[in-house]
Write a structure and sequence with these properties.
Helix content: 25-40%
Distance between the termini: 49 Å
Radius of gyration: 15 Å
Structural class: alpha+beta
Order of helices and strands: EHHEEEHEH
Number of strands: 5
Strand order of the largest sheet: 1-2-3-4-5
Largest sheet: 5 strands, mixed
Length: about 150
Amino acid sequence: MTVTSETRVATLADLPGLLAVVRQFYQHFEFSWHEERKRKLLEELLIRPELGRLWLVSQDKKIVGYALVAFWFSLEFDGRTALLDEFFLVPEARGGGTGNAVLEVVESELRQDGIRVIRLEVDRAQARAATLYARRGYVASARELWCKELS
């Protein structure tokens, strides 16, 4: 039986179900989780589209994943640029082409919005994710991504 997925831009009404899947992403990667903080940040993203965009992935009307893109301006990359900051599918939604289909929607909509470059991070331990991205034409940059917390 073929499972069909739907990918659409999230709205504030999606926040409760979305939060549950985002929590799974954070648990999967063992990231620190602060429920109220993440809820407020997701709410801000959903009401301020200039910050980025969040797509929900559903199967049989159940949320099974999401893709979160943040925007910034880059002279090097010819203007507004996108960072695929978080992309997650629950385990039962993986391996059947859903990830590829989601990326196709995300890339198409960003291209229509004039975005010329999408960047992303790949955890070295996530070989399946790296394979998916490579099949879609993403390549590893010669640069390393560095971070500093300003807390």
